[in-house]
C-alpha cells in the first residue's frame, strides 16, 4: 500500500494515521483519513500522489522543473530540480508555521 502522508502518534510512536491505498481506492464517500478527503477515492495511489505533488509544488511544477534545469549553471537531475522547487515553495509556509516537519525552521 502506498502511503502518501502519515501522522505519527504522540512521542513518534508507530500508532499513527495514514493516507494510503485504502483512502485512494475508496468507493464510498465516508473517510476518516488525515487528508480530510483531499485524496479520497482518487482511484489509485498514483493519482493521489500526483495530486499531492501539485498541491505542494503547484500545477505547473513539471514546466518549472524543466525551466530550472535549463537555466541552472550545473547539471540538475529532474529530482534535484523538483526538490529545489519544493524548498522554495514550502519555505514561506514553514516560516509562517503553516506546516510542520520535513525541514528545520531557520
Ligand atoms: Zn486520505
Report on the structure:
By secondary structure, the chain is mainly α. A two-stranded antiparallel ribbon has the order 1-2. Helix 3 packs across helix 4. The chain is elongated and about 50 Å long. The C terminus is likely disordered. The structure holds zinc ion. The site of zinc ion has 6 residues, from loops.
Could you tell me the strand content as a percent range?
A: 5-15%
The total domain count is 2
How widely separated are the two ends? 34 Å
Radius of gyration: 16 Å
Ranges where pLDDT stays below 50 over 5 or more residues in a row are 101-106
Shape: elongated
In round numbers, the mean pLDDT is 85
Count the beta strands.
2
Can you write the helix and strand succession as a string? Answer: EEHHHH
Largest sheet: 2 strands, antiparallel
Biggest sheet strand line-up? 1-2
> Helical segment tally?
4
| Structural class computed from helices and strand pairing | mainly alpha
Bound molecules: zinc ion
Which range best describes the helical content: under 10%, 10-25%, 25-40%, 40-55%, 55-70% or over 70%?
Answer: 40-55%
Amino acid at each position: 500500500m502506498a502511503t502518501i502522508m502519515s501522522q505519527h502518534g504522540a512521542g513518534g510512536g508507530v500508532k499513527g494515521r495514514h493516507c494510503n491505498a485504502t483512502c485512494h481506492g475508496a468507493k464510498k464517500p465516508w473517510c476518516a483519513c488525515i487528508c480530510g478527503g483531499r485524496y479520497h477515492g482518487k482511484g489509485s495511489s498514483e493519482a493521489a500522489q500526483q495530486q499531492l505533488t501539485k498541491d505542494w509544488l503547484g500545477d505547473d511544477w513539471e514546466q518549472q522543473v524543466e525551466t530550472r534545469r535549463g537555466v541552472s549553471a550545473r547539471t540538475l537531475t529532474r529530482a534535484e530540480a523538483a526538490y529545489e522547487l519544493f524548498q522554495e515553495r514550502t519555505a514561506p509556509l514553514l516560516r509562517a508555521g503553516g506546516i510542520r516537519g520535513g525541514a528545520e525552521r531557520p
